[in-house]
# Entry
Amino acid sequence: MKRLNQLLLANKAWASEIVEEDPGYFTRQTGGQTPEFLWIGCSDSRVSAEQITQTQPGGMFIHRNVANLVDEADLNLMSVLQYAVDVLKVRHIILCGHYGCGGLMATLNGGTSGPVARWLRGAGAVLDAHRDEIARQPSEEARVNRFVEINVRDQLLKLARTAIVRDAWARGQALFLNGWVYDLRDGRLKPLMAIDADTAIDEVGAPAQVLLPTPG
# Structure
């Protein structure tokens, strides 16, 4: 309870400080949102999208799930995507993984059960499709990190093939898909690939080792 109460006290102090510095801050927040970015990232507590990009509230619409997977059967993700693209008219979608991803470690090593195991079937499909490329990496860390990169690539391709994204491009909406990886070791974001309305998706679907750099 002590730690929980500390969160409430910290919130109170934060709100008071904000009002002191900018009396109109919260009034502006009630006026609606016009974010330029949709962030699809991992649920990992160490990867805070707004913190690592220094984005102010209202600038980024956010969806997070374990291992930053794209699944058209996931109504949560698809609702976020539809609202962001069709209503908010975001210009950029950033799909961001992170090196050392626990969900992908679990996919490589097994041992999960229940909802987590079912959810990670999407990551398992990526592993099955690229097992040889991942297995060639020289260490466990390198295998996980290569898996992270390949997963970002494959999830971005799945995103590009959703009806929501394809319909936006068909009507001429400016929408750009970006695949990034966050490095916990140095706090840096690393762009891996980008897709827009003019990208030949089938060509982007070439072997992953042609498209993605080795971490380092």
The first strand starts at residue 37 and ends at 42. Residues 206-216 have pLDDT under 50 and may be disordered. The chain is about 50% helix and 15% strand.
